Hints:
The structure holds two protein chains of two kinds.
Chain A: H1 8-17, E1 49-56, E2 66-68, H2 71-80, E3 116-118, H3 123-130, E4 134-141, H4 149-153, H5 169-178, H6 188-196, E5 207-209, E6 224-226, H7 236-239, H8 247-258, H9 264-286, H10 308-321, H11 323-326, E7 330-337, H12 346-370, E8 377-383, E9 402-407, E10 416-417, E11 446-447, H13 448-459, H14 463-469
Parallel strand pairs in A: 1-7, 1-8, 4-10, 4-11, 5-6, 5-7
Antiparallel strand pairs in A: 2-3, 4-9, 8-9
Chain B: H1 21-32, H2 48-58, H3 64-73, H4 75-83, H5 91-97, H6 114-126, H7 130-140, H8 155-169, H9 174-183, H10 185-190, H11 210-217, H12 246-255, E1 259-260, E2 269-270, E3 277-278, E4 289-290, E5 300-302, E6 305-307, H13 313-326, H14 330-342, H15 349-360, H16 370-379, H17 381-384, H18 387-390, E7 396-397, H19 400-410, E8 414-415, H20 456-460, H21 472-488, E9 490-493, E10 506-511, H22 515-518, H23 524-536, H24 542-553, H25 563-579, H26 581-584, E11 585-586
Antiparallel strand pairs in B: 1-4, 2-3, 5-6, 7-11, 8-10, 9-10
Amino acid sequence: MYLLKPDLHSRRAFLRRTGQLAMTGTALPMALNLAALGEAAAFDASDYKALVCVFLYGGSDYANTVVTFDDDSYNRYSTVRGGGADQTAGGIALAKADLAATLLKPTMALGGGRQYALHPAMTGMAQLFNSGKAAVQFNVGPLVAPLTRAQYNGADRKTYPLPPKLFSHNDQQSIWQSSSPEGSTAGWGGHLGDLAMSGNANSLFTCISVTGNAVFLSGDSALQYQVSSGGAVKIRAVADPGVYGSREVRGVVDMLIRQSRGHMLENEYTRVTTRAIAAETHISAAVAPTAAAPGGRPLNTAFPAENPLADQLKMVARLIAGRSSLGAKRQVFFVSLGGFDLHDNLITQQSALLGKVSEAMTAFYESTVELGVSDKVTAFTASDFGRTLTSNGDGSDHGWGSHSFMVGGAVKGRAFYGSAPPVSIGNTGAPEDQWHVGQGRLLPSSSVDQYAATLAKWFGVGDAELARILPNLSRFGVNASRPDYPVDLGFMV
Amino acid sequence: METNAPLVEEPLDINALKLGATALASALAACSVAPVRPQRAYIEAKTDDDAARFLLQAQFSASDAEITRVRSVGYARWLTEQFAVPFSETGWDWLNRRGYDAIHNDTRYYDNSYPGDYMIWHQVMTSPDAVRKRCALALSEFFVVSLTGLDFGWRSHGLAHYWDQLSANAFGNFRTLLEDVSLNPAMGFYLNTKGNQKENPATGRVPDENYAREVMQLFTIGLYQLNPDGTEKRDASGQRLESYTQSDVTNLARVFTGYDFDQSRNVVTVEPVQQRKVGSTAFTRMRMALAPARHSSLDAAFLGTRIPANTSGDKALKLALDTLFAHPNVGPFFGKQMIQRLVTSNPSPAYVARVAAAFNDDGNGVRGNLQAVWEAILLDDEARSRNGLADPKFGRLREPMLRFIQWGRTFGIQSTEGSWKLGDLTNPATQLGQSPLRSPSVFNFFRPGYVPPATMMATSGSLAPEFQIVTESSVSGYLNYMQNVIRNGIFVNTPNLPNNVRNAKGVLDIAASYKDELAIVTNASALVKRLNLLLCAGQLSAATQALMINGLNATPLSATSSEAVKLNRVASAIFMVMAAPEYLVQK
Lengths: 493, 587
């Protein structure tokens, strides 16, 4: 059953995929059925897989999240960030002794004696890493093509293009999610949904946000469906037998809020309302906390309280628990936590924020174990951008590349991927100064397109489709004569 | 057409000649660039609907008396009259009148945000200078400070003064507003100018870049170079031209070093229970103070301006803000967003150009005169012509907070105890999903360039900023919240006390009176007609009105019916209207 009828957008997507977009003016076949496109071929319809994007709004400070630990690197870090004597805390540097409990112990040691620990508040994440259930991707961020610092500093933008609007929050959020700045209307999570939705009984439940609107989840035909962390919101005026005791008034409201309108804004608003009403009963049944609902299951994993990210991830877990009731084979979820734009009070606030991330993602992983889908669900972090390595006194400023976490049974855990960036704010031609663009703003050594491709491939997307949903991917990898920027970063089984 | 209108020559003011060379130069400059005054086709409100439509763009609500006045004096004069309405009680003064400056451990107002919510709701629901407050609210979505991001002692007072400065400057000049915003302590906290210090090579410390970046990106010039009509300039290869670089940010950041709260007039009180020393509220109304020793003495080169090394902090700030203010982007960048807030999401480039021209020169050679900007927005043919009513893309989705304020002001909302305990209503699943001065970040509740994916807006390349907060949850939460509030009012704990005591016996302290609606409640047609005028400026179709009237008449009602039955009918009518898409999109 389709809650969502194929419309203009899906026809456009079909044309795009079948290479007919140039044929404008051609009469569109009206009997199009998405399920007949054969796109499900990319996916094994017998299993279930889900990707969960955990977006850290504000730009996460990479240097205090995945903290350089070996003495040589740590001492450089401490010098830049105003640390105290004898590797004690100071400025915005963490004390080395506080990092011992969250030291990461990869199966294969990094070259050059490099070692890393997580922020002391991230004990859960460190345990996930050390038990092989999580990995770290170093220095990933938006790139149009592989780029060196000299090319970044040069003037030849034609040969060496930059992602637009670097260092700007709203635009880099959008670029991370969709390869385009503010105003973008389709993201790579949504494009995964485009490919997956025909395999789901209810296409609407393919891409689900448990936070606000995010372009990440919109595709050409896939829509973002949004639920609150308490589940789908029932509209009383429709669900109840009357409004202020009147059945007739209820009927009028019901009609008004769902009617088609000639005015563009009015019509889109009523479309959202119509969708909300149609979806609510399905969602409410699927996430019912008892096994009473068909296909629903109780969820016993304890999630931390006073943690909005945990509330959202708990709802994701409940939706996954109800996946058969929702008829879902492939799903992409989006959750978020805000407050990472720590120009000030970095030390005090980062501790609370990263603690929430770690506890929420740890609980979520445990819930997937309880549900028996730990190797079918992969959660990963992303953020607007990384931040400077330098300190502005008690915080850091907008940067570019950052480190990401990947969590789940299908992640090749207990490992680092990508290149560990040198700890440097120097502006010379020396090799150690080549992986930042000033003040320790990391120049990404892996692109978001590579990162997305790695996740998408695990999700079931074929090579040809990858190139279509990730517009810059063709500039990376062996086929682009850049084996140093592989299309598959290797962190998924 | 405006472009064909003759140049209106400004007469040279003979008095200016007596004022010396500077005045003469500016008077001459005013002559030489005398703007084309738009020849406006819509001077008078020919119908009550026209008048209500204008009122609902210019302020929060429309009343019978205001409609009559607009029809009597015309749009422009009515607006001029509103510019002259005295600035009503400030939010800061209201907080003190309600006792929120008291220092006691039981209340700890200095540590709480809720007085700030009560303050702003009281302001927007009751202030008699409604046009000023409507414009200030639009400004608060451009120069964003959010109570959600304030975490310092007396944050509610700090926010109140920030709001008061937006209100005070709403009919003033953009340059003054920009300076007041830049040195305001709440903004100083929000975007980190407070405590910002110069570079220190010994520790590696560098200036905080946050304010320097956002004052350019969000408060003045935006990311891309603009044409006077708000469209983006392109180079020969079709690329957009960025308006500043990271180097501009790093350099400008030096200008905003050395500032902190001005504690010079603070009086410390020892709180009697916990013996905590608490300073007074004085600093929240004072500009941040400059400590010269903490101000960067490096030169700062940005946007083609160079502030030499060792320039004093005050002078550097003036040079920096003058540079930003003079940038040609400001008029179209700011003007387009104000059009979006008040009139329509997708103004024509010509409309933006007319508003930008008014920003650039108010007709008297003054740049940044905000009265001229509001006039240019609200009196423009594109806002006034009925063509917009037939255009399926014209208008804007009413923001949830504006729907709620409109409801309150239209139907005589009152707090029986005067405490106005209306809190943060940002929960989208159970409340409005929006609350004044409660943006989730400095990027406002929604972005001016937002295009909702998978919609006709995306297909046609149209903007719909307010749709960024439209989700399956928020459309449902809004309906549920309003269904309760319209009929019952707002439940408040201990409305007789200013502090936020929980678990006490509460009452529905805040409610609408519906006096004029109850007076015509026996006549469903008259009731719907009235709501159509006041809430929708007559924009409900005849078919929709008929549906509503039938819905109401299904429940028999006479003059002798109970108050509850009468109230049900009034509430039903209002709820149907406020649920209707024809209401939700303001055209």
